[in-house]
Every structure is written in C-alpha cells, then in structure tokens.
Amino acid sequence: MTARPLSSRIAAPAVIVLFLAIVLVPFLSLLLAALQPAGTPLTGLALPRGIHLENFAHAWSAAGFGVLLRSSAVIAVSVVPAAVLCATLAGYALATMDVPGRGKVYGYLLLGLSIPTEGTVIALYYDMRAVGLTNTVPGLALAEIGAFMPFGVFWMRAHFAAMPRSLIEAARLDGASSWTTLWRVLMPSSRPAVVTLGVLYFVWSWNQFLLPLILIQDPDRRTAPAGLGFFTGQYGVDVPLLAAATLIVIAPVVLVYLFFQRHFINGVLSGALKG
Amino acid sequence: MTATDRLPGPGQGSGSESAGAATDAGAATDAGAGPGLGLGADSRPGRRTATRAPAPVGSVRAARASRRRRRAMALLYVLPALLPYTLFAVLPALHTAYLSLFDWDGVTLPSFVGLDNYRRIGADPQLRAAAWHAGALIVFFSLLPICVGLVAAAIVSRRSGRRGTVLVRTVLFLPQVIPLVAVAIIWRWVYADDGTLNQGLRAVGLGRLADSWLGSFTWALPAVGLIGSWVVSGLCMVLFLSGTQRIDQEIYEAARMDGAGPVREFRSITVPLLRPEIAVALSITVIAALSSFDLIYMTTGGGPGTSTVVPGILVYRLAFGGGAVGLASALAVVLTAVIAVVVLVINRLAREKS
C-alpha cells in the first residue's frame, strides 16, 4: 500500500463519524429529554438530574400509549401475514404460471407503485364510511393491504423468477400440482425473500400515518403514530413526557429493524434497484 | 431489472393469446381429460400444438382443456392480490378523480362543475405556493442528499478496509425506519427555542443567530427541508456505497496511473458509473418530497402563515376541514399524476443510459 498523505487517510473515518453524529445527536437529545423529571424547563442536550423513568410509566398508562401500541399491533398482525400471503401467491403465478394477459396484469399492479396515499384517501374515507368500515380494524387493514400489494407482488415475482426453472419443472414431472410445487419445493428456500417482505410490511404498517388519521376517528382505536400526533397537539409543551411517548412508539419498529436489519436494508436497496 | 425480465417475451405473449382464443372455441367438451398431459404442453402450448400437426385431434383437445384449466387456476392465484388492490387502491383513486369534477362540501348534494376545480388550482395563490414549496422540498429531499451521499460514498470507498460497515449501515438507515411522526417530534425538539440547535449555536458563540426556526417565515421551509435531508441522506450514502463496490478497482488504478486526482476520479468514474443508483435515489427521494404530509403536518402544520404549505397538507385541510372535497380531490389527482410522470421519466432515463 502506498503511503498517502494524512489528510486522505483520515478523510474516510472523519466522514463516517460526521454522518453517524448527525444521525445520532437528535436521537440522543430526545433520549436525554425523556429521562428528565417531568415538567421541568429543558435546554437541548443536557445530562438529566438522575434517571427519571416515571415519564415512560406515565406515557404508557395515563397518556394511554399502552392501548395505542396494542391497536397498532392488532393492525400489523392483521395486515402483514395476509399481505405477504397474497403477494406470494400472485408473485408465484406471475413468475411461473400461464396467467391470462400476464404482462397487462403485472403492469396494472405496478401502476400502484406511483399512487400516493393522498390520491386515494379522500374517496377511501367516503367509501368506507358508506359501508361502515371507518373506525374499524378491517377497514384500515384492507386499505393498507391494497396499498402494499404492488410492491409485494413485484418483490415476490422477481424472487420466483430468479429461482431455477429446472426446480419447478422437475416437481411437475413428479406430478406435483402448482400448489404443492409452491409450498413444498419453492417456499422452503424462499425464507429470506418472505422475511424481508414481512419486515418491510411491518415497518410500513406501523409507520402509516395518513390512513389511520383519517379512517380512524375514534380515539380508542387509533394507532400509535396517529395517537402520537394527537398527543402532540394536546401536550406539546411537556417535553419529557412527549419524548418518552415517542420512544415507546418507535421501540417496536426499531427492535424489529435491529433484529432484521440485514433483511430490511437489502430489501430497500435491492427492491429499489430491481425497479 | 431489465425489460425482458419483467415482461413476457413478445413471441410468447402473442402465441399464448391466439392459442387461448382457439381454446375457447372447442375444448369445453373434453374438460375432464386434463391432468395426464402434464409438462409437455406446459410452457408454450400454443407453439407445440401448432408444430405437432399430425397429433390425434383428441389429444390436442385435451391439451387445450388442461391448458384452459391451468390458466383459470393461475388467475385464482393472482386474485387475492388483485382484489384488495383494485378495491382499496385503484377504485378509490378513480373515485377521487370522479369527485374532482364536483363542487362538494362532503355533506350536501354535490354539483357538477366539470374541470373548474383544476382551473382553480392554477389560480389560487395558496395552491400555487404549495406547488412552489414542493419544488423547494425536492431540493432538500433529493438534490442535497444525493450530492452529499455521492461525495461521502466516494470518500469512504477510497479506503480499502471496510471495518464496521454493518454498524455504520445500521445507524445510517435508522431515520428510514422510524415513523415520520416521531422524526418530526425529534426535530421539533432540536429546533425548539431551548432546543439542541440553539444550544449548540450559543455554545460556539453564535447565540445571536438563535431563532425559533419552525416558527420563522424565513427559516421554517429550509428547516423542514433539512429534516427531509436528514431522513434520506443515510439511505443515499448506503445505496451509493454498495454501488461503488460494483465498480472495478482497476478502473480507478488506471485513472491514477494517468494522473487523475480525486476530483477528476469522482467526476469521470464514480458519478457516471453510479447512474443506476442515482436514478433509484432520485425516484425514492422525489416521491418522499412530493408526499411529505406526515412531516409537515407534525412540525409546522403548513405555517407560519402559508410558508410551509404543501399539496398533501392542502388535500387534508380542504377535504377534511375546509369542506372543499372536490377541490381537494382535484389537487390529489394532480399530485398523483405528477408523481406517476416523475417515476416514469426517471425510470426511462435510467434504462436508456444503463
């Protein structure tokens, strides 16, 4: 290795440290604020006088974030498995089977990648209200599943299309039906793709804000981020309590992310590149 | 992904369609005879039956029948995805477009006004301001993070050892993972009067620059924009870093032999070869900038005055508070159309160049 000048050798670590600091400092100031005694005037980054976990207890019970978290979990548990299953079936069929008008069906699904929530939410509200689905878990879950389908089908189709055709043909020669081929032959080696999609869906469902804000008006059924939105309007000044509530709301999604970080990052990066 | 990978080849597509039409005519009678034929007729049955002219008529019919059943079966697999997508994404989008042709307050009877709502979008100063702010946000959400990400990736990739990459990637991606509502709350605290930013300014003796950033007519828009930069910069850098690993190191070595400095290397090698990644970053970040409802709603709500109003905020306000459902719908349609065009153009450009 050639001896490079000092400036170029420290440039890379310096840039990395700078980026890390820019990401982490705002998190750190929130974390420190959450540990301050409730209702005290604060300034920016300051070490708390002792560690005050009562903000978390207060946010969890009195401010109702325990309940909000449960609503969000119910939505995620209804959305993620259903959406992954639908996307898997459709992706499998579009990649390996003779779907009538296959190109058109796939193009029709991909169209949805460029429909923002703002483009559907007005009519969704009036349509769902007309059939009594506003303020319900199924209403919000169905709206999310509909919005998540384009990416999921795209993702699973790309996955199945990349699997060796010989695998599928061998299974068919052995007399396996398309159903058996999918579940016995292809799915065992599809775990990474399915887990990635599940993690992405979980994060999107958890973080969804506009849909629950409009489709769920009943305070007892709000999701955690929507609840956080309302809470900010009410108690915007009590910084330690708000900081604690925020940390409670982001904890599940951050934990899932840390556990599956490779899946999540690869999903975002390669999902984007394949598009 | 290439075009050929994505769509069925032209030959295959047209072949199977004509075969499908032929099947409809005469195969229903033999519907029971199917499954034994299995693989032979599977992938391109249209062609096979055509080339194997001398085959007995019965087996041709059986092949067509089993093929028809397989196609119906394939449709069943796609249906669970098509149904919710159509009912809860496509139809609402079309219904929104329909609503945009009416003057409606959401309660009384709507009255048909044709394209009037679209004309009002062009004329209303608040709506024009929203379009202008969306453009400004693209600078903060897209151009700035992409430039910063490119430079950072170029600098970091010059170092050969990649210690701690997983940790670095995990941290840099963190802002992507948490809900924008939480991002907004974090930054409200950074920008607050007694917040981290003002504290930092005072600490380095620039206390007179301190401001209440989100409440300032001058600073609110850039302040919100920089939150967007914070969210996507890490994503851009990680994306570009993984792209640079694809670039052959010998190209750089050859360039260095020819006396190219780091700036020249960056301009002539790194940036051109990262074109696909740049296209991806552009489409992700431009969509994020155009649909930035969550962030604005939670930080400034569009204020002070109208200084941070964006299309998403107006859609929400007009439809669910302002009693102008038709106008809000028209705005939503325009927003959807702009996003669709942007995505299309970026994908087209990326495909042409790569």
Structure overview:
The complex is a heterodimer of chains A (275) and B (354). Chain A is an all-alpha fold. Chain A has helices at 6-34, 54-60, 65-96, 102-111, 117-130, 137-161, 165-173, 178-186, 191-207, 210-215, 224-235, 239-259, 261-274. Chain A has a domain at 67-227 and 250-274: Orthogonal Bundle (MetI-like fold), CATH 1.10.3720.10. Helix content of chain A is 75%, strand content 0%. The mean pLDDT of chain A is 87. The termini of chain B are close together. In chain B, β1 and β2 (111-112) form a beta hairpin. Chain B folds into 2 domains: 3-99, no CATH class; 117-353, Orthogonal Bundle (MetI-like fold), CATH 1.10.3720. In chain B, 71% of the residues lie in helices and 1% in strands. Chain B has a two-stranded antiparallel ribbon. By secondary structure, chain B is mainly α. Chain B has helices at 3-6, 10-26, 45-51, 57-99, 116-123, 125-157, 165-177, 180-191, 196-203, 220-244, 249-257, 262-273, 275-290, 293-299, 311-320, 325-353, and strands spanning 102-103, 111-112. Chain A: Belongs to the binding-protein-dependent transport system permease family. Chain A: Residues 69-260 form the ABC transmembrane type-1 domain. Chain A: This is Carbohydrate ABC transporter permease. Chain A: InterPro entries: MetI-like, MetI-like_sf. Chain A: Keywords: Cell membrane, Membrane, Transmembrane, Transmembrane helix, Transport.
Features of this protein?
heterodimer; A: 275 residues; mainly alpha; MetI-like fold; B: 354 residues; 2 domains; two-stranded antiparallel ribbon; 16 helices; flat; disordered N terminus
